[in-house]
Batch of 3 targets.
Target 1
Amino acid sequence: MCSSETQVRNRSSVRDASTSDRRLQSSSSHSSVGNFTAKTTSPKRILEKHDSIDARKCLVAQVGLENFIRSITAPLDLTLPNAVRFNMNGNGRMQTWEDVYMAERVYTQCLGISKRIYQIHSFTHEPDKKLAYFILEEHNERTLPFLPGFDFHVLVFTYYNDKNEVTAVDVQYDQLSFFLHCFGLAQLHAWFVEFVMTPLTIVWAKAYHNSGLVNPFTFMLQLILFPVLLMYYWGIL
């Protein structure tokens, strides 16, 4: 008798747990989509996109860009024809992988980087757009002892065609932060921004907000007048 009652209670607790899990999954997947209106999207479209996206874990860690690029194409069975539209943060546009690899070798030597370990741990795949994107983690070691090594993160978008050939790559990153790390000035810049620039900016923002004149035109006017007044004060004008 006791054993049968125990089994019934166990089955009931399992059902309750599974029901609560489903409710938790349902609430967690839908509660983050707020109620809002927009011309180009909606909660329904966001949920449809969420259901169609394939987000998976994938560990790739390689030394050197070419080794890394050839490794990350494997999970989606992509191929690498030599022709590619490679956009390096809007500051460099290359048309072949040979040029991409050559440019990476040259500028790493110029910046005193002796070794780069590239790695990813997951990526997001949108089959409808033939697009996969991920956060690339770089570990940079230096050629000179007084230059500090550093880690850096880059956002990479990869596009492919119906033949599963990679056709375009768009690389986006904070270029200022990257060069500050290269020259060992990242910490000094962070201190200056936190303790000098930010307090001054907050004072200006409060005064600007209290003026009641906040709009794009007065903001652009300030951008023009401020350097002019500085040059006048320094005697340049």
Note: The chain has seven helices and seven strands.
Target 2
Amino acid sequence: MRLDRYLSCVLGIPSQEAQKQILQGNVCVMGKIITIGGWQVLVSYESVSLHGKQLKKPFDRLLIANKPKGCVVHKFYNNEEREKLKRKSEDTLRSLLDYVPSHLYHPSLGFFGRLDKDTTGLILMGTDSAIGHLLHHPSTNITKEYEIILNNPESLFPDATEKLFNGVVLSDGYKCKSAEFYKIGENKFRIKVREGGYHIVKKMIGKVGGYVIGLHRVAIGELRLDSYNNDLKQGDVREINDYELEKIFSSLSTVNRVIKKDKTSPNKRKLKKQ
């Protein structure tokens, strides 16, 4: 959550008054004076004080999910919208929010990042958009790791790993950031990317001769689905625990907390279908 909005929510003051308090150096985040209203505060983890007095936190909920295949990362606002998309897909359409237990659901829940309908794995949901912005904005370079199943691994270019490491160029001229790519099984591979976008992993693999038939996200930064203490099965959604919260904060400990728009990001461009 932006620092100025944090103050407005907690104190019930106009945004201009919140900005004034911040600019005057009266506001601290985790004991550090912050003078930028757009500073992203991690509500789940960080404390904010005004004139040395710690403020109460606004409502916050952070959930971790292991997305199953076939559901969409989309918030249906009414049944008409759901039926419209259902007709396009010609099958039963469920939102990932349908998997949230009733006692954890909140109208303000949003998705932090996206996964395609047929992609499975790690995704976060919550009410504090700062976490989503910081984890997925291209300027922060947070890695996302995926397990890939290829239709015909023999079709991969011999120098596929090198090409992906150097950054492949997509059909619209966008050059991808460096990605780590390695084999873990007969037709299974792992890839670590530092950006997002519509079918970005599939397009990157397509540029080195591969065709993805299975995609599963296993990690975002230091947060992993395959860690020793993770009990999430596909379709499970629960509140994040302290260990996982520490991993998120550790991933974001050195990133710039003031997010600026990036017009070169694949999230901001209309990527052509390959």
Note: The chain has seven helices and 15 strands.
Target 3
Amino acid sequence: GVEAAVRLSKITDVVVWNKIEGKCKNMLELKGGDKLLELEICCDKISRKWSTANADDSDIFCTLGELETIIEWKFSKGKPRPLWKQIRSNSEQDVQEASKRAFAIVGCRNDRRQLDVKKTRGAMNEITVLKGIGPASASAMLSLFRPDHFAFMDDEVIECLHPGKRAYSLKVYMDINSRCQELAENLGEDWTPRRVGFALWTAAKLSACGDDLIPNISLNDIDSEKDEEIGVKINLNDKACKTETIETESNFDEVHGKDENDKL
């Protein structure tokens, strides 16, 4: 289904993106049922709590409990990893201090100053000092804190936007995050890198259900009032609708190697 996400990334009409994004909840439910939907709500509450921080608020941080919620959401949305023992070995103080340093680097959401590559990389590096936390997990946290600057490192987003071999390195994340920022800027309105990533993930999952959702017709022919003209259809009871497993545990190391100290 990633080819559908690739096609979506080439489309500049915000109507199509909005329609695809509107099916995200359906795909979350299909992937992880009520549990994933509940985790999505919990992560949204964490994000909204962080969004109330002021530009001079230096005490905003992530707690160990919030980190565990975010990682559980990540594993439920993607694939579980054998990292819980490492993650839970981080102390409350470790998590709070690492996140506080990272959040201070990028500033709060109300701070509209453009973030440069150095700050993005610096914030990621601060989070990945935690045990069991690699670039993908760091992006999950930072995309909740600053969705206007950070995308989440979904497998489907990597395969859609990164031209090379899929990997979970910081270098690859910087590449796909930059692309998500560009797409969000081109779409305008309230689009953010995080929203862009979610829409690409949704397009891939919908396509995996057997529906070719991204139009090959002229954008001038798209009617925003008719879902059928852009192929936005889904039958959650369709037995052909399946989530994809991109790699198995047996070839995980072959695909990913030992990059980033086996942290995701």
Note: Residues 217-261 have pLDDT under 50 and may be disordered.
